[in-house]
């Protein structure tokens, strides 16, 4: 009986080890199987020219009031400070155009339909945690768009690029309405995360670089998507933010706790094509340290003004001071030391992708206020 029991235990151990090996060796394939649509791509009908005149086409925009997720204001936790934190005063009003990350996970179609209940619910949560650091703005605009599904970023199928292109077209139309709705002399802050940052990169290249609009960009926060210093940055028409006091520049970071295993991200980045038509390969990734506001820097946790630590479902949270450090490594990734307790949405390899902005919520809020102030002085 004892020998039979040991055989059973040994068999279970072998199954667990085999399962771990399968996940390690074929994790990308399993993820693709779970999320990449097997259906044909359906060409997206172009939005009506006046589509974004409809207030329902915006998650955030002037006039929504207390229900606007981007206007949420967290408080500090415990006895640190009971009152809410407020953005530093700026010398000029500014408008934010924020593009949300991927919240549509279905594999039944390549692009999310407008009004999908589950993806809308997740987007509202994302905006509370990621767009709210920009709530010192006089106006925040965050459009609905027919985002590419998560699986589109896990395959090299032609349908995937078609889905991403279709999503970008919606973002471009929303941006046109945004521009027509704000005053002609209002400085603009572009901000997004993940898929949203990808679309903003293209927007900078196609619609901003070399135009009269470029001088109005106070800052562009392209967070959670790797930007090649060599192959992407020159085409976007704005420099990287070299100092915390600089305006008219681009910031970007992707967060990993240690020990970090960014191999999946680095592999995908290396094989991708930059804006100059050349593979990004081993080119440097832009890494802005959100604690210092400069490129390639290191900072201890005592410089962190407040990490937004979420509750279980990410719908609420509180700010905690001096809890997370940050340093840019030689690959262009932002390392944050030992894994902080942020919740259950950490990706493999200690990738804190979902928390890129909440980790540095208060510093981001202070950073945008400072850069808009610098823009106003320069202008």
Structural description of this entry:
The protein has helices at residues 2-35, 117-130, 158-181, 195-208, 263-271, 361-378, and strands at residues 58-60, 95-99, 139-143, 188-193, 217-223, 249-251, 255-256, 288-289, 294-295, 298-299, 307-310, 317-320, 326-328, 334-335. The strands form 4 sheets. It has a 6-stranded mixed β-sheet with strand order 1-3-2-4-5-6, sandwiched between helices. The chain has one domain. Strand 8 (288-289) and strand 9 (294-295) form a beta hairpin. It is globular. It has 379 residues and is an alpha/beta fold. Mean pLDDT is 90; it is low at 1-26. Helix 3 packs across helix 4. The chain has 6 helices and 14 strands.
Please count the helical segments. 6
Low-confidence stretches: 1-26
In helices, the fraction of residues equals 25-40%
Whole-number total of structural domains: 1
Distance between the termini: 84 Å
Structural class: alpha/beta
Radius of gyration: 21 Å
Strand content: 5-15%
Strand order of the largest sheet: 1-3-2-4-5-6
How can the largest sheet be summarized? Answer: 6 strands, mixed
Query: How would you state the average pLDDT, rounded?
Result: 90
Count of DSSP strands: 14
Which shape, going by the Cα principal axes?
A: globular
Order of helices and strands: HEEHEHEHEEEHEEEEEEEH
